[in-house]
Every structure is written in structure tokens, then in C-alpha cells.
């Protein structure tokens, strides 16, 4: 039964999420990218824009690792420019889709060894690709929470309300 789940569904969902977030950030202005992530983080990301860049950078770098290429240094990508960040997202997503198309089926479940920062990781390409997509989903939820705590809300971003796999969602007029 679980074999019917498809990576393309998660790709489509995260593509939809990116479109919604891009539009939201354009509507609210680049200053929201400067909102603090708060005092209790791990020190890697001080502002929402840094966390957004991290989402796209992680995708790009994992694809580069799996492809045996040099890692992109994303530090030069500004974290306070909506269009630049989301142009980077289109580049990272195109790289992921190209990787998925070209990667040999016989190697999806063959573990590979990586050094990430000062840590060792052994994982299959399948696990890493699933991680890329789940990592993104998790971070968008964190961003939504950070923004909500600042009084900034938006539409539903849940998979259930997305157009992926069909269905329909609409708000009904409230009855008083």
C-alpha cells in the first residue's frame, strides 16, 4: 500500500508552498525577512530570511553531495531580498528535479558516506531526498509560527488544503 506514495506529490506540495510563501513575502515586504528567529535557537539563523535561504541551500547542497559536485556557498545570497531568495529556490528545485530524472534506479537504496560539517553521515539517496522535502516542510511550519507570533498570518498551508492529489477547499461564509 505504501508503495503508492510518490515523491512527486511532495515535490508538488513544496513547489506550491514556495509559490504561496513567495507571494506572501512580496505582499508583506522584505522587512518581514528581518524578523528575529528568537533568542532560543541554535545560533545558525538570526532572522526569517536566513531560515528561508537555509531551506533552499540545504536542498542545493544535498543534491550536490549526491552528485559528487562541489558545494555551493550560499552566504552571498542576500537574506533580505524576496526575489533573489526565490530565484535561488527555483535554481535549487531545478537541480533536484534534474537529479531525480537522471539518477539510476539501481542506486536509490545504496548507502553513501558523507561528511557534513564535523559529522559523518551514511544514508541512501532515497532517504536524503525524502529528508530534503521533509526538512523544507518542517522549516516552513517554523517560519509560519514565528510570523504568527509577530501577528502576521496567512492562508492555510497544510497539505490537505493544497491542490496536490486533487480535492477542494473553500471557506464557507460564517453563519451568525
How would you characterize the overall build of this protein?
- It comes from Candidatus Segetimicrobium genomatis.
- A divalent metal cation binds at residues 54, 135, 139.
- GO terms for molecular function: metal ion binding.
- Keywords: Metal-binding.
- With 176 residues, this protein is mainly α.
- The protein is built from four helices and two strands, in the order H-H-H-E-E-H.
- A hairpin with a 2-residue loop joins strand 1 and strand 2 (119-123).
- It has a two-stranded antiparallel ribbon with strand order 1-2.
- It has one domain: dinb family like domain (Four Helix Bundle (Hemerythrin (Met), subunit A), Up-down Bundle), CATH 1.20.120.
- The mean pLDDT is 92.
- The protein has helices at 7-28, 48-67, 82-102, 125-149, and strands at residues 112-116, 119-123.
| Oligomeric state of this protein | single chain
Distance between the termini: 44 Å
- Predict the CATH topology: Four Helix Bundle (Hemerythrin (Met), subunit A)
- What is the spatial order of strands in the main beta sheet? 1-2
**Structural class, from secondary structure content?**
mainly alpha
Low-confidence stretches: none
Number of strands: 2
Main beta sheet: strand number and arrangement? Answer: 2 strands, antiparallel
* Element pattern in H and E: HHHEEH
Overall mean pLDDT stands at 92
CATH H-tier superfamily: dinb family like domain
Strand content: 5-15%
CATH architecture annotation name: Up-down Bundle
CATH class group: Mainly Alpha
Number of domains: 1
Number of helical segments? 4
Q: State the helical fraction.
A: 40-55%
Amino acid at each position: 500500500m505504501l508503495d503508492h506514495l510518490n515523491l512527486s506529490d511532495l515535490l508538488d506540495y513544496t513547489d506550491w508552498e514556495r509559490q504561496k510563501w513567495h507571494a506572501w513575502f512580496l505582499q508583506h515586504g522584505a522587512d518581514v525577512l528581518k524578523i528575529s528567529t528568537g533568542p532560543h535557537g541554535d545560533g545558525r539563523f538570526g532572522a526569517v530570511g536566513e531560515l528561508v535561504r537555509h531551506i533552499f541551500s540545504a536542498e542545493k547542497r544535498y543534491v550536490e553531495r549526491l552528485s559528487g559536485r562541489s558545494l555551493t556557498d550560499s552566504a552571498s545570497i542576500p537574506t533580505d531580498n524576496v526575489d533573489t531568495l526565490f530565484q535561488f529556490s527555483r535554481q535549487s528545485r531545478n537541480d533536484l528535479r534534474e537529479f531525480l530524472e537522471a539518477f539510476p534506479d539501481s542506486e536509490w537504496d545504496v548507502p553513501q558516506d558523507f561528511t557534513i560539517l564535523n559529522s559523518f553521515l551514511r544514508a541512501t539517496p532515497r532517504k536524503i531526498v525524502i529528508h530534503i522535502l521533509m526538512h523544507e516542510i518542517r522549516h516552513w511550519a517554523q517560519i509560519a509560527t514565528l510570523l504568527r507570533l509577530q501577528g502576521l498570518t496567512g492562508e492555510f498551508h497544510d497539505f490537505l488544503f493544497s491542490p496536490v492529489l486533487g480535492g477542494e477547499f473553500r471557506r464557507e461564509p460564517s453563519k451568525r
